[in-house]
Specification:
- The chain contains 13 helices and 9 strands.
- By secondary structure, the protein is an alpha/beta fold.
- The protein has 2 domains: 166 residues, NAD(P)-binding Rossmann-like Domain (Rossmann fold, 3-Layer(aba) Sandwich); 121 residues, N-(1-d-carboxylethyl)-l-norvaline Dehydrogenase, domain 2 (Orthogonal Bundle).
- The strands form 2 sheets. The protein has a 6-stranded parallel beta sheet, sandwiched between helices. It has a 3-stranded mixed beta sheet with strand order 7-8-9.
- Helix 1 links the parallel strand 1 and strand 2.
Length: 299
């Protein structure tokens, strides 16, 4: 693929979107960007990106358009609103949805775009903001295998681990299942921490035991950092984790899958959001459960 002749549009310059867009620009792709808050585009424009006034403008003439937005409502708006992407996408373009959204919306988007001769790939991503900066995200891909092959050079700029899951709907479902596991694991850590802390076990001992045995995992080490290095910039907003858990519960309801742990974790996430932690990292659950237990997180 000749990068100079392959134009890419990018919509959604949030925590993950901005570094992803920057990597495409560094890789040599001509980039046209749009974000609801226009100021977030300034660093990319300074590096050579073209700022667009609407999603439709960001899509115009692009071979690929990457979308990274918060939820179903935001995706629906940037796709189908009066100045949405569907008004600017050219025939043969491939829309790459990197957002975590419902399988149902993916089916609807793919069908609507197909009528415009536009292809749709769902490509939700995992890992941290740092991984997004380094182009080392993990990506799940759903859609046509042929479309995936065409888009792969673009996707490989963004992710170091790419998993083709199957048709549209499969990757979205897999991402919700993954975030279900992440959310319940974080909640499990909070209870592990609060119980041991209230019993007087030193934090260093808790972590020594965790790291040395079968409890160890990347998620547990991430949770540990909520205690060791508090107050950093969020990697994943708690309000977005709540949204993903709600989507997982909706899907489980449709499929008659019992998910009692996820239901309980959803209640804790909702409580945390209502107590003002929505814009904090989802590891804020540690602070919330510790406060309910009457123990200090630090010190």
């Amino acid at each position: 693929m000749a990068k100079k002749r392959t134009k890419v549009g990018f919509v959604g310059l949030g925590l993950m979107g901005a570094p992803m867009a920057a990597n495409l620009l560094k890789a040599g792709y001509p980039l046209q960007v749009w974000n609801r808050t226009a100021d977030k585009a300034k660093p990319l424009v300074a590096e050579g990106a073209t700022h667009c006034g609407t999603p439709a403008e960001a899509a115009r003439g692009a071979d690929f358009v990457v979308v990274m937005v918060a939820d179903d409502a935001a995706l629906d708006a940037v796709l189908f609103a009066e100045e949405g992407l569907s008004r600017g996408l050219k025939r043969g373009a491939i829309l790459i949805n990197g957002s975590t959204t419902s399988p149902g919306l993916g089916f609807r988007a793919a069908t609507a775009l197909r009528s415009l001769s536009v292809r749709y790939l769902e490509c939700p991503v995992m890992r941290s903001v740092q991984a997004a900066r380094e182009g080392k995200l993990q990506m799940l891909v759903g859609g046509s295998a042929d479309d995936f092959a065409k888009a792969r050079p673009v996707l490989e700029v963004l992710a170091s681990d790419i998993h083709y899951v199957g048709d549209v709907g499969k990757a979205a479902t897999m991402k919700l299942a993954c975030n279900l596991l992440v959310a319940t694991s974080m909640q499990a850590f909070t209870e592990y921490f609060a119980l041991a802390r209230k019993s007087g076990v030193p934090f260093e001992t808790m972590m020594e035991v965790m790291h040395a045995g079968p409890l160890d995992s990347q998620i547990m080490r991430y949770a540990e950092q909520a205690v060791v290095n508090p107050g950093g910039r969020p990697n994943f907003y708690l309000k977005h984790m709540l949204k993903d858990v709600n989507l997982a519960l909706d899907l489980a309801r449709q499929l008659d899958v019992p998910v009692p742990l996820t239901g309980a974790t959803r209640q804790i996430l909702a409580a945390a959001k209502n107590l003002g932690h929505g814009d904090s990292d989802y590891s804020a659950l540690v602070d919330l459960v510790a406060s309910w237990a009457g123990v200090a997180v630090r010190g």
